[in-house]
Structure formats: C-alpha cells, structure tokens
Write a structure and sequence with these properties.
Distance between the termini: 17 Å
Mean pLDDT: 85
Largest sheet: none
Number of domains: 2
Number of helices: 18
Radius of gyration: 23 Å
Shape: globular
Length: 481
C-alpha cells in the first residue's frame, strides 16, 4: 500500500509541476513575443532548438536506463551514477564541439552563434541535472525534481524579464537560461547527496559501462528521433526561409507544446496500468486503452475547434508583427487530436514489449517530416512547417494504430461513435463562439465554450457521470486506470 501511495504522490507532484511549469513558461514566452521582433524571437528559439537536438548525444538514452537500474538495484546507485558520469563528461565535450562546428557550417551570423554558445552551457548543465534527478526517480522521489522544474522557470523568467526591461541585448536574455540551469545543477547535486544519500564520483568500469550502453541503445534511438521530430523544423526554417519565420512559427508551436501536459499527465498513470494488464488481464488492457482514446478525444477536439475560431483573437494577445501566425496556428492545432492519441498508442506499444516498433514508427515519421519540410518550407515558410506537423502526426497515429491492432483485437466502432458525438458538440460550440466572438472578451468566450461543449457532451451521452468519477479515481486516487 505504501508503494501505491508513493506512486500516487509522485504522479500528483509531477502533474502539478507540469501544469505550473507550462503556465510560467508560456507567460514568459508571451511577454518575450510582445517585446521582441519575430527575427529576434526566432534567433532566441533557434539557439534553444539547435542545442536541444544535440543534447540527446550527451545522454544517449542513459537517463532512462539509470532510473530503471537504480529502481531495481538501489544499493548500486553510487556505482551506476559514477559510471554514467564518467561517460557523459567526454560526450559533453564532443557534443559542444559538434554544436560549434554546426553553427560554423550553417553560416549563422555572429549574434546567433553567441546565443547558441550560451545555450550550450545550459545544455551541458541540464544534462547533468537530469542525470542526478534520474537517480532520485529510481529511489521513487519526484518531489525535489518537481520543485526544481518550477524554480527553474521562475529564475528564467525573473532574470529574463530583468534583462529585457533593463534594455540589455538578447545575449543577456539567453544568459538567464544559463543562470537557471546552474541553479538547478547545484540544487540537484545537493539533493542527491544530502536527501537521497548518493555521492557524486567518477568510476570507469569498462564491462559494467558497456552493459549500460547496450541497455540504452533502444532508448537512445527513440530519443534521437523524438528530438529531431520536435525541434528540427525550427532549424530547417532558419536555413530554408529565415529567422523571422522561426519567430512566427514559435507562436503556434509553443501553444501546441504547452497543451501537451494534459496527455503527459494522463499517460503517467496509464502506462503502469497497461503494463500490468498486458501480463495479467488482456481484456482489461483493451478496455483501458479504448477508454483512454475516448478521454483524450473529448479533451482535444473542442480545443481544436475553439482555437480555429478564436485564432485571430489569440494572436492579438501578441504583437501585431506576429499576425502571420494566424494561419499556421489554425493548421497546426488540428494535429492536436493526433498528438494526444499518440500518447496512449505509444504507451500501449511500450507496455506490450513493442518498444522497438515505437522507435521504428518515430524514425519513419522523422523521415516523412524532413521530406515534407524540405518541400513545403521553401514554398510556404511557417505555414509549410505547420502542414508538416499535421501530416506527420496523422501518419504516426495511423501507423501506431495499425500495429496496436496486431497486439489485440481492436474494434473501434464505439470510439468512432464517441468521436462523432464529440465532433458534433465541438461544432455547435464553435458556431456559437463564432457568432459571439465580436461581442465578448476572449476569456468570457472560453468560459462560454467550455460550458456549451460539456452541456452537449452530456446531452449526446459521449461522456457519463461515472466516466468523470472514473477519471478522477484514475488520476488522483489510484494512479491507474
């Protein structure tokens, strides 16, 4: 019972931290977008996107392995951490060299290069911070990591706004990220030493380390594909269009990225349940999976329709220089339903020992994404990148669904009926909001939209009272479906 309660507490910590982190991060982004020209914003997030892609070559999937192995063998925590650190130090040096070489080969201007170099400091510090917290996760403690994620965003926003309103250059705004990363690095190392009781040392056991590397290879493959898929579009926009369009694209990208805390928090509870049912109750596995699809459709579809109708009002929250982001936002938000549904599909494949298939699916999606970006960005700039996000997520959804059907007998007629009811409710909601949009503030419109949508959801019986209580019990009380 203690272990179950611990899992529930950790899920609650992580969920609350994700919500808080996203709120602070998006608030800070909105302020930056209202005070920086699209080209400046583009340079800032190009630097972050480039170093975020390269950061995976420092970790190479070792974080997931470290957490798993520490959970299995907590008595070997010191040895596991020491060996991982001994590998990460040379990998960090090589990765920074690769980042510098890439900025030189791509011919970025001096300011962009310096922004990338400062972001590289954060990349290294964050990598070691994540390693320290991976050990605490293995000891079933997410409290301090959850606190750190909130403090990190507060420090970034605090120092960033100080630099912005003091009239300092973009370099100082980027320096806020490095300062926050340094704080997290020191904080996580102290937590590890004095709260978890694990010393930070270096140890090179060639045989032991090679075993860890072999375990990390499947995780590394998926992580590399995922990073490329998420951040490569910004880099390609800078190369095939210009940095102004990177700034324009960041508006819809950040909105859709911020919304992903919903399925992330949901899947944190779903995955352990699916893993258990795969071994012990195949019938319940199917029920839980189909129920997850329903819940995430019900959440995502109204957001799509509401955003399409209110896109112009949403973009009005930013500077008028970002008006070109309206159409990319209306296109990219359609991908939200596929993004949401890909979370339970990926969890199902992983829970049922199909993690390699998950990696192959992500790899194929990356290839498609790069291909589409190379064709569409030169023609349509930010709109082309948005179309790519929509098509590639749709592709990954149907690919994942196909392989999910090989695991169990998926009969999705009931899910399709729920989708039609959800769609009808969202269309009615969108029609009303479109009629009222010129008469009310966006906050009032959102509140009206929520009330109208859920009214029709209950009228059409797409969701019932017992489903609401089931979600509550799953996410809050038990931590499982």
């Amino acid at each position: 019972m203690t272990k179950i309660n611990n899992i529930a507490k950790n899920t609650s910590y992580l969920t609350l931290a994700l919500i808080g982190q996203k709120i602070i991060s998006f608030t800070y982004f909105t302020i930056l977008a209202n005070n920086l020209a699209p080209e400046q914003l583009g340079k800032y997030y190009l630097a972050i996107s480039l170093t975020t892609i390269f950061a995976i070559f420092i970790d190479l999937g070792l974080i997931n392995v470290l957490t798993r192995e520490v959970a299995k063998r907590p008595f070997e925590s010191n040895k596991l951490l020491a060996n991982v650190l001994s590998l990460k130090i040379p990998l960090s040096i090589l990765t920074v060299g690769a980042v510098i070489l890439t900025t030189y080969l791509l011919g970025y201007e001096t300011l962009t290069k310096y922004l990338v170099y400062i972001s590289s400091i954060s990349m290294i510090l964050d990598s070691f911070t994540t390693t320290f917290f991976a050990v605490s996760r293995g000891h079933h403690n997410l409290l301090y990591e959850s606190i750190a994620s909130i403090l990190f965003q507060l420090i970034v926003m605090g120092f960033g706004l100080w630099a912005l309103y003091s009239g300092f250059s973009l370099l100082y705004i980027m320096l806020a990220l490095a300062i926050a990363s340094l704080f997290n690095f020191i904080y996580s190392s102290l937590i590890l030493r004095f709260k978890i009781g694990v010393k930070i040392n270096l140890q090179y056991d060639k045989k032991f380390l090679w075993t860890l590397v072999k375990l990390a290879i499947p995780f590394a493959g998926y992580a590399i594909f995922q990073r490329l898929y998420t951040y490569l579009d910004s880099v390609l926009l800078s190369i095939l269009a210009n940095e102004m369009y990177v700034g324009i694209y960041q508006i819809p990208f950040k909105i859709i990225f911020a919304l992903q805390f919903l399925p992330l928090a949901f899947v944190a509870s779903l995955y352990p349940a699916l893993s258990h049912y795969w071994l012990h109750n195949k019938e319940q596995l199917l029920v839980s999976f189909k129920r997850a699809l329903n819940y995430l459709m019900i959440i995502s579809v109204p957001i799509i329709f509401g955003t399409i109708v209110l896109a112009d009002k949403i973009i009005m929250l930013f500077d008028s220089a970002y008006n070109q982001a309206i159409l990319p936002l209306q296109i990219i938000i359609i991908a939200l339903v596929f993004i949401f549904l890909n979370y339970p599909i990926g969890s199902l494949l992983n829970a049922c020992d199909r993690q390699k298939r998950n990696t192959y699916n992500m790899g194929l999606t990356v290839v498609l994404s790069v291909f589409l970006n190379l064709i569409l960005i030169p023609m349509y700039q930010a709109v082309g990148a948005a179309i790519t996000v929509l098509v590639s997520n749709m592709f990954m959804f149907f690919l994942g669904l196909y392989y999910s059907s090989k695991i169990m007998d998926l009969k999705l007629k009931s899910n399709f009926i729920v989708f039609l009811k959800t769609l009808a409710s969202a269309i009615i909601m969108a029609g009303l909001i479109y009629y009222l949009k010129n008469y009310f503030h966006i906050i009032i419109l959102v509140l009206i939209a929520i009330l109208v949508y859920f009214l029709f959801i209950f009228i059409f019986k797409a969701i019932k009272k017992e489903d609401v209580f089931s979600i509550y019990r799953s996410l809050i009380k038990k931590g499982k479906l």
